[in-house]
Amino acid sequence: MTTMNLPLISTCSVSGCSYNHDHDCHAAAITITGATSSCGTYVEEAAKAGIDTTGQVGACHRSECVHNSALECSAQSVEIGPGADVADCLTYSAG
Ligand code: SF4
């Protein structure tokens, strides 16, 4: 896998995050962490931040997810939104 084909973040409904612009994530690469598949890149700041293009999943610590391979996500795209935490991977599947 190269950084050119990392999974796209198809939508993110966490509008309070700095990287969120109109339900699109604009962090270059996010990391999914923790016991609840939370987005470790979420940050609540007043100022908007990030890059011009849609963000991707750079790494994921949820090794038990069906889409996880060697701590990377192999899904085509993922959806991020409120779950157990303020920002979680909603594409997570324990299989
Ligand atoms: S779909 Fe699974 S492997 Fe991909 S980012 Fe979400 S929790 Fe991680």
Key phrases:
3-stranded mixed β-sheet; mainly beta; 95 residues; single chain; binds iron/sulfur cluster
Task: Note down, in words, how this protein is organized.
With 95 residues, the protein is mainly beta. The chain has one domain (3-89). Helices cover 0% and strands 34% of the residues. The strands form 4 sheets. It has a 3-stranded mixed beta sheet with strand order 1-9-10, with no helix packed on it. A hairpin with a 2-residue loop joins strand 2 (20-21) and strand 3 (24-25). It is globular. The protein starts with 7 loop residues before the first strand and ends in a 6-residue tail after the last strand. Residues 32, 37, 57, 60, 62, 65, 67-68, 73, 75, 78, 89, 91-92 line the site of iron/sulfur cluster. Iron/sulfur cluster (SF4) binds next to strand 6.
In this structure, how is the largest beta sheet organized? Answer: 3 strands, mixed
Total of domains:
1
Distance between the termini: 22 Å
The whole-angstrom Rg is: 12 Å
Percent range of helical residues = under 10%
Associated small molecules:
iron/sulfur cluster
Structural class: mainly beta
> How many beta-strand elements?
10
Strand line-up across the major sheet:
1-9-10
Spatial shape: globular
The low-pLDDT segments are none
Residue share in β-strands: 25-35%
Helix and strand string, N-terminal first?
EEEEEEEEEE
Q: Mean pLDDT, rounded to whole units? A: 95
SS summary, helix count: 0
Briefly say what this structure is:
The chain is mainly β. Helices cover 0% and strands 34% of the residues.
Topology:
Layout: E1 8-12, E2 20-21, E3 24-25, E4 29-33, E5 38-39, E6 56-60, E7 68-69, E8 72-73, E9 77-81, E10 88-89
Parallel strand pairs: 1-9, 4-6
Antiparallel strand pairs: 2-3, 4-5, 7-8, 9-10
Bound molecules: iron/sulfur cluster.
